TrEMBL record:
NCBIfam families: ahcY, PRK05476.2-3. GO terms for biological process: L-homocysteine biosynthetic process; one-carbon metabolic process; S-adenosylmethionine cycle. It catalyses: S-adenosyl-L-homocysteine + H2O = L-homocysteine + adenosine. It holds the Pfam family AdoHcyase_NAD. This is Adenosylhomocysteinase. The keyword Acetylation does not apply. Pathway: Amino-acid biosynthesis; L-homocysteine biosynthesis; L-homocysteine from S-adenosyl-L-homocysteine: step 1/1. Belongs to the adenosylhomocysteinase family. SUPFAM superfamilies: Formate/glycerate dehydrogenase catalytic domain-like (SSF52283), NAD(P)-binding Rossmann-fold domains (SSF51735). Its cofactor is NAD(+). Keywords: Cytoplasm, Hydrolase, NAD, One-carbon metabolism. The keyword NADP does not apply. One of its GO terms (cellular component) is cytosol.
Amino acid sequence: TVNGLEFAVKDLSLAEFGRKEIELAEHEMPGLMAIRREYADSKPLAGARVAGSLHMTIQTAVLIETLVDLGAEVRWVSCNIFSTQDHAAAAVVVGRDGTVDAPAGTPVFAWKGETLEEYWWCTDQLFQFADGQPPNMIVDDGGDATLLVHKGAEFEAAGAVPQPTDDDNEEYQLILKTIADSVARDPKRFTKVAAEIRGVTEETTNGVKRLYKLALDGELLFPAINVNDSVTKSKFDNKYGIRHSLADGINRATDVMLGGKLAVICGYGDVGKGAAESLRGQGARVVVTEIDPICALQAAMEGLEVVELDDVLHKGDLFITTTGNFGIISAAQMSKMKHNAIVGNVGHFDNEIDMAGLAKIEGIKKLEIKPQVHTWTFPDGHAIIVLSEGRLLNLGNATGHPSFVMSNSFTNQAIAQIELYTKPGEYEKDVYRLPKHLDEKVARLHLDALGVRLTKLTKEQAEYIGVDVEGPFKPDHYRY
Ligand code: NAI
């Protein structure tokens, strides 16, 4: 605690650099800046205590300061151990009016290269604001903050936190330990938090999957807005964001020439489509694996060969997972790859590539080339290069998606926060999407910056196609 502000970041003296980059990013985030102007006077989030768990980057700093400008009190952590940009975290803590000696911004608990134990400690810091109050809103990315509240409340209701067993993976053991420590201090902590939360707005595919499952099982403790499935989120961030940040991550990590290389993309959903375009744009020969016939057919129609992973193990130069599923590349498969093949993941969780299995291969040697770049040498002497230890490489090895595309995602986030906070009682304990007119609004806010001149429907044309002159222009089932 400095100057009455709690935080845990790497180095506050990085704040000046962070501030300069935040100011550049603001210019590239017209949607968020328009939201700041629109709500400057009405402050719809006054009284909101927002707990945010989302990659602590420069772009996220602009989101955080937007939420503050809308009236919210905010606490923030990263949703990945490697994704924090330390200068962004420092600048948010110092704030727009503070100094390194007297920080006056927002409490952040995040640094690049947390251990998993530190990660769950940070996440736990979200649930007690400085005045002892619990949060009443969550911004989540991947669902870890929501998971902690749900598990905590479940164990409190049961009267005991289960002891970790050897069958639990390391991360689940740490979750149990974090909850046990918290509950030891306050036996009803998470129950109280859950009762206060008006809603969660979830950023990504994997987090949304968790929410739908909780809702289906009747276990969701508060309303949720699925931000990911706004068209202006998943059809932009997941696709065009990855198109930018995948090649960026590989380049910064390895500087390997991508042209001419054989790149294997596992999964051809929104992220996979962006990944394929990213590497194809660099002249790589891209092949794809899929389980869904529709996505496989889409890949084929784009001129991409659709293969089974085992068919290309011995000849692929790069292997990138994008599925949001687990067990996509096994240790045995990695052992069959070419010398110095590059293996990386851009799906949300680190279980797409079997890193635990790789570490268990007898005689295998891991060598750090630099942080988040390792070679793993098999007993026969050949090696593979693994990026970000199997975690999101676009954030671990580079700086994630660029500001402009994140402005689309985060404008959805800000609107969703306002929606759930200002309309308690209008939403059930279920998962909702933002209505299409708001999705169209987010897009509209980004047109001027690109010089887009939109054609206006005449009244007669609008009647002919059965829409309002001002939109929405498409039915909900339209797929873009
Ligand atoms: P999606 O559902 O559109 O695509 C995933 C695709 O993987 C689907 O087409 C599915 O059929 C396929 N798939 C599933 N199991 C497979 C298997 N065993 N082999 C081959 N293909 C398989 O999901 P989306 O939106 O593309 O997200 C993918 C992941 O990326 C999620 O974990 C999401 O949270 C994450 N994400 C990461 C971002 C980043 O910055 N790195 C940005 C946005 C999302």
